[in-house]
Amino acid sequence: MLYPQFNRFRQSHDLSGFWDFRFDPEGAGEGQGWSRGFDRGRPIAVPASWNDQFEEGRDYLGPAWYQTRFDLPWNWDGKRLIVRFGSVNYLAEAWLNGTHLGGHEGGHLPFEFDITALAKLEANCLVVRVDGELAGDRVPPGNVTGEAVDFFASHGGNYPQAQFDFFSFCGIQRPVLLYAVPTEALADLTVITDLQGSTGQVRVRAVKGPAEGGDAEAAARFTLRGHGLELAITTDFTGDTAEAVLSVPGAALWSPGAPHLYELAVEILRHGTVLDAYTLPVGIRTVVVDGDRLLLNGHPIYLTGFGRHEDFPVVGRGLLPPVIVKDYALMDWIGANSFRTSHYPYSEQMLDMADRLGFLVIAETPAVGLYFREDGLERRAELCLQYVQELIARDRNHPSVIMWSVANEPHSKPPHAAPFFRRLLDEARALDGTRPVTLASFLGEAEEGFEFCDVLCLNRYNGWYTEPGDIARGTALLSAELDAIHRRFGKPLILTEFGADAISGMHAQPPEMWSEEYQAELIGRYIDVLRSKPYVVGEHVWNMCDFKTSQGVGRAGALNHKGVFTRDRRPKLAAHRLREIWRRS
Ligand code: GCB
After folding, report:
1. What is the pLDDT of residue 145?
2. CATH of domain 186-282
3. 299-584: same fold as 11-132+168-181?
4. What's the CA-to-centroid distance between 117 and ligand 1, angstroms?
5. What is d(CA 276, CA 293) in angstroms, rounded to the nearest whole number?
6. 497 is catalytic
7. What are the residue boundaries of the structural domains of the chain, listed by start?
8. Which residues contact 255 (CB under 8 A, 6 or more apart)?
9. Predicted TM-score of the model (pTM)
10. Ligand 1 centre and the CA of 379: distance in Å?
11. pLDDT tier at 154, thresholds 50, 70, 90
12. Is 481 tagged catalytic?
């Protein structure tokens, strides 16, 4: 899936701004024809979650209605017009001028609709109905009743009742873009890079939309530029596909610390005329699992960094570019080289910046809080599969993405969990054979899905949820558990979560739970253990920043306080401790 671009052949217009908005708790909108346009809407900012924009909206999860109006520029006539949603949480249905465009399920992946036949030159009315209600057959799930399936249930529950530990922000959370492409346009690009000695290989596959006057004689020109190189290859389309391999002697490789990018321009040609063009940054690099090691460009790498969230006051999970820049600056300051997009795909802007700045990303689907009771299981499996497909389609050209994670902390149980994960991980491998696949688990040795992973991602809270207050016993247990997992599976392991809540400003000597000292001490002692295990290839502290979650007895102020920075990005003691460790190593 290609992100909209603005060039000689393509235009795009960002519909961000103030839209009209109505909550619809009674579900009246459909009967009253709100899809054709509604009145008495109040202003809402798009993109942003709705929850913190109004007094009464915080815990309301839907349904709700959005609408905006737009005109078309005169020079879009004769083009194919598309409306693209970057992220709508959770269910979306869209209408243009009263005609149903379609729907999408799942909160953090883009979807789009062709509106060429429906759009007018003036006064178009775009309406979107959003429903973020939590339910057992949705992914991630919530409002699951019956047998306790998670931590919250055993601690008196949480509100809103999610099966996951972050606030269930709702709404249009990333930009809605209107864009225009030529009638015969590039529809997709796949770039795979490889290395033969010092020669980089850039393998490109271009797919174009159907031609108007038959497919004969269309060709693709691939031009790779940068680092003193300019290389062009022209190949004919066979059907809708054209492929090329560009060889780059003495390639400037992409890596953290030296994130070299080339620029790939792809054009469609017919009888020497250029019909469409698209450019893509390309980082030449390889990622391989070799025994217990993770290799980047043939060299072992060790990940330092965080599990994170897209989360900020007022805007919720809405795209906020300055926070992206700030968070990379803080990761650089502290000496992190990587992060996991826990627990859902992050914005395309976040990944573009990871490519540019040289951060390694474990890209995760929204499959968090999975459970394996029979009811709704097939539906949840279908959704997880859809997420894997949509995530890889969106992100596979990012050099920063080094691994796919298909789930976080599933409550894996026989007999369903093993086939469930085999299917997801096989699908990820079939769609992209160039990256290791994984899932993040708290079950350790008992994790059924680990058998099918290339790298194991483990989350551990010894010294916090278990062995509370006793870091020495917690880390001793950690050491034994890691060895046992490695004996059983014999694969490289990343500790993708460990940490402790610390209320900023709370201090204790000797360290006590919830103090900044305890958090710093626990993190430091964990790292000592991890560094003593040759098969451990990374350490991701949970979390980079404090973040909003559902209310519950373990969550003071409805925040998870495991950030080493506060929610407004101020360092706690642990951030300084990590900086000493990570900047030294
Ligand atoms: C976990 C989850 C994460 C939570 C964290 C915690 O294991 O993966 O989403 O926020 O624990 O702080 O409890």
Report:
1. 82
2. 2.60.40.10
3. no
4. 46
5. 43
6. yes
7. 11-132+168-181, 186-282, 299-584
8. 285, 296, 297, 358
9. 0.98
10. 25
11. low
12. no
